[in-house]
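Figure-free illustration: sequence to structure, shown twice.
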Amino acid sequence: MIYFKKFALVACTVILASCANIPLSTMLEFRSFDEAKFVELDAKHLLTKIHVDKPAEIKPESTWLTLGVSSSEEERSFKYNLEVISERTLPAESGWLSDTPARTEYVLGLSSEAVKEFTELQEFMTSDTPTGFDLHVNTGFKEPANEMKSITMTIFLKLYADEDYFTLIDRAELDIEKGSE
């Protein structure tokens, strides 16, 4: 009976975690992320990967990384431009539970100016002890086709050169709102 209860608890946890757009592994990854780890980051190795289902496309000039830093005295927000390093088409995939349509993969890194600004932030953080972080990847989309009602995307982040990407948002569906003309 005890084994059944443990199995049921683990099964429920897996089911709930699998339904979320932010994976449990990402939450665990950031659980221990602190200012010391942030200051150790090499801005040149900080990469973002975005998958967008076809036919949607991102606007590279409207894509940036935003970092919010809180301290006991102030809250500051920093915006860093991202540049496209590579772009490729990923083929459609058939899965056990669902199919994944063809999508475009964008790999983006900080621009040279953003690397400089990011390094300045790291220096600032050595003099002031932060109490919290917010991290956002923002992007705009090229004009969608009239028949599109939503865009599905996944966002990955790579913090260290010797580590792989981890998922920030997994196959989130964004509704397209048509502007009034």
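We now fold a second protein in the same way, so the two outputs can be compared directly.
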Amino acid sequence: MSTCIHPRHGTEPPLVAASLMLCERCLTILQTDLRAIVALWPLLAEFATPGNGWSSGGAAGKPGSRPPCNVDILDITHARGVIVQSIGGWARMVIEQRQLSASPADAEQAARLLTIHADWVAAQPWADEACAEIHDAAYAIRRVCKDLPDRPIGYCPDIDPRGESDRCGGPLRWIDGSTAVR
């Protein structure tokens, strides 16, 4: 058996299933990131328009001091932007290597195609690069849509239930209205 090629594991990467290059955890992260891109992409156009409460609109009494929309969203959705080029590039790689006839029109369709072929992507020698770039794209989209989880208040000190390391290390977050964490 081989080990996961993603650099997030450091010196002790976990074993991977036969014919895959990514471990189950990395594959799950890739699939989650792709689903987030598909779900949040349609919201970006709405958030970019002025007056919706999400833009970085100008200050009252100071005309022209700030752009009337969120420039970060425009950077993400621009056809020649890093995010669109990254997602589209990986989709083109899948289309070429799998000899598909698909032609995604935008990043959302490219992410849908990648979601369908995520297991195949995880078996490629470039899967770690794709996983990292898609994760960065999903994070940028989540950030501008304000869809990030709260910062953790600590990390789980219990024994790792997966057996990958000595400690679980999962994030602990406050549950509103209670004395519990999750």
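Summary for the second example: Helices lie at 24-48, 71-77, 82-98, 107-116, 118-121, 127-144.
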